[in-house]
Backbone:
């Protein structure tokens, strides 16, 4: 146990006296930032794709859009996120001649990636809403788009909120790969502490704890949101 | 008001409507009866193009709304529809259910006018012949206040003003259907379409819904009702249509049709249900 105490001392030395905590705070901020903005982009893209997929396909435009969306989902679900990050950062950006900061590339890739997953979740949610809701809206003279956004999607979101919370949690954890393209997340912060103190046990243990606490906080907020959305339901 | 000309509807290979021609005049109350599977609900749903007719015309106020190029949303504003399963918006309170369509549509119109005015102003800067702007005499707040007032008036009429801020899941079937009816009324429709409005209700709640429909009929609303309530059809309707196998078999005044049916199919059906 004595050696463990020494390890904690070493960790604390780097963490507190040698600026380790600023790195951890930046890392935590980046992790949350990538996950939150990524999920926001993902929900927007995912909802649009899901709507395209459930639109009746009499006309040509929906069919073309649908083909494009299928291609998109296939692309982003078909490869690991690390590969997508590397391709985006080392292949697509140079080809386009752009020079974006790594963190922004991560946000975009995570957003596009989660859009593909959210689209399937959202599609399930939209299909779970009774067709009568859409019919009632249309019969009143509202357009397809208006009824979708004001009536169907809100009910769908309520149904899929637990799954969406899962997606968010998965996203938080997946951000631990952003160091592949040089973005500073929690992992980067703690391995910095570890390599400066030649001691990895405590930093990684603390990192694990931070992730767990982060996920618990998110789970709590998802529960709260669910409760407030469920007020139109009979079960409380 | 509505002229239906040779209306046909197929679901895949199944021919549900095999050519229907009839016309509904202002103030008329048309009841559609017939055995299940005869296409009466499909016919009603074709009247406001909830189902797109396979062929034929539905001419409403001079416009063929079965034509796919017509913006159906504009015409549906003038046709209220009431469903068997009520279909109240579950995520909205009762008052929001009633206000949603009038407010959304009025705001949409207001926005379109403003955008058009913007372009006309730009055009007027350069063009010699000045175009007139669209008149805008309401504001957002005014539209909402008016819709709310109207919704409350309608709720008072059915005695549910204290339920205004409740969600539909807390209402009984009869209350839901009455709210659904006034939701359609809030758009000031020219014609009301009822698709078996009492079929999903408990027997004790049928009365309150039928009473409300009767009131509307007495006020002179044009309506088309698909129903299994023969007594109601007889009492309220000015004309009864008997449908079977996708065709209109017989249509007549209720007294004639119920007491002296001409067609053998009508006689068979009536002997079963009366």
Residues:
């Amino acid at each position: 146990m004595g050696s463990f105490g020494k390890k904690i001392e070493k960790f604390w030395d780097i963490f507190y006296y040698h600026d380790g905590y600023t790195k951890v705070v930046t890392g935590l901020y980046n992790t949350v930032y990538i996950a939150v903005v990524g999920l926001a982009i993902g929900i927007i893209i995912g909802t649009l794709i899901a709507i395209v997929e459930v639109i009746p396909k009499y006309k040509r435009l929906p069919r073309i859009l649908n083909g494009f969306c299928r291609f998109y989902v296939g692309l982003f679900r078909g490869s690991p996120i690390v590969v997508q990050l590397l391709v985006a950062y080392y292949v697509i950006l140079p080809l386009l001649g752009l020079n974006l900061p790594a963190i922004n590339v991560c946000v975009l890739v995570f957003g596009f990636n989660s859009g593909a997953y959210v689209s399937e979740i959202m599609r399930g949610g939209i299909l779970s809403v009774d067709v009568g809701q859409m019919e009632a809206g249309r019969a009143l003279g509202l357009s397809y788009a208006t009824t979708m956004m004001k009536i169907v999607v809100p009910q769908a979101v309520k149904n899929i909120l637990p799954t969406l919370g899962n997606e968010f949690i998965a996203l938080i954890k997946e951000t631990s790969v952003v160091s592949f393209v040089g973005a500073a997340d929690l992992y980067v912060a703690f391995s910095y502490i570890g390599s400066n103190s030649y001691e990895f046990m405590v930093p990684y243990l603390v990192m694990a704890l931070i992730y767990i606490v982060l996920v618990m906080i998110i789970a709590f907020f998802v529960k709260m949101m669910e409760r407030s959305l469920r007020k139109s339901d009979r079960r409380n | 008001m509505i002229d239906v000309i040779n209306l046909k509807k197929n679901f895949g290979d199944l021919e549900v409507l095999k050519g229907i021609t009839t016309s509904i005049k202002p103030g008329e109350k048309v009841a559609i009866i017939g055995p299940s599977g005869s296409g009466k609900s499909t016919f009603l749903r074709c009247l406001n193009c909830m189902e797109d007719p396979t062929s034929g015309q539905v001419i409403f106020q001079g416009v063929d709304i079965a034509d796919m190029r017509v913006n159906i949303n504009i015409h549906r504003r003038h046709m209220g529809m009431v469903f068997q399963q009520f279909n109240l918006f579950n995520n909205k309170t009762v008052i929001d259910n009633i206000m949603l369509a009038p407010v959304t549509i009025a705001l949409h119109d207001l926005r379109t006018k403003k955008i058009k005015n913007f372009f006309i102003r730009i055009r007027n800067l350069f063009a010699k012949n000045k175009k007139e702007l669209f008149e805008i005499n309401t504001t957002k707040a005014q539209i909402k206040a008016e819709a709310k007032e109207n919704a409350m008036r309608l709720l008072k009429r059915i005695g549910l003003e204290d339920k205004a801020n409740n969600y539909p899941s807390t209402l009984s079937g009869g209350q839901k259907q009455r709210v659904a009816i006034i939701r359609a009324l809030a758009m000031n429709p020219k014609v009301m379409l009822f698709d078996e409005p009492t079929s999903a209700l408990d027997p004790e709640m049928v009365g309150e819904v039928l009473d409300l429909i009767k009131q509307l009929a007495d006020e002179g609303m044009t309506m088309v009702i698909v129903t299994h309530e023969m007594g109601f059809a007889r009492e309220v309707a000015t004309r009864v249509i008997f449908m079977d196998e996708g065709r209109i078999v017989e249509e007549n005044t209720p007294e004639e049709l119920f007491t002296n049916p001409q067609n053998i199919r009508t006689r068979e059906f009536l002997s079963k249900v009366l």
Notes: The radius of gyration of chain A is 22 Å. Chain A has nine helices and no strands. Chain A has a mean pLDDT of 88. Residues 2-235 of chain A form a domain with the MetI-like fold fold (CATH 1.10.3720.10).
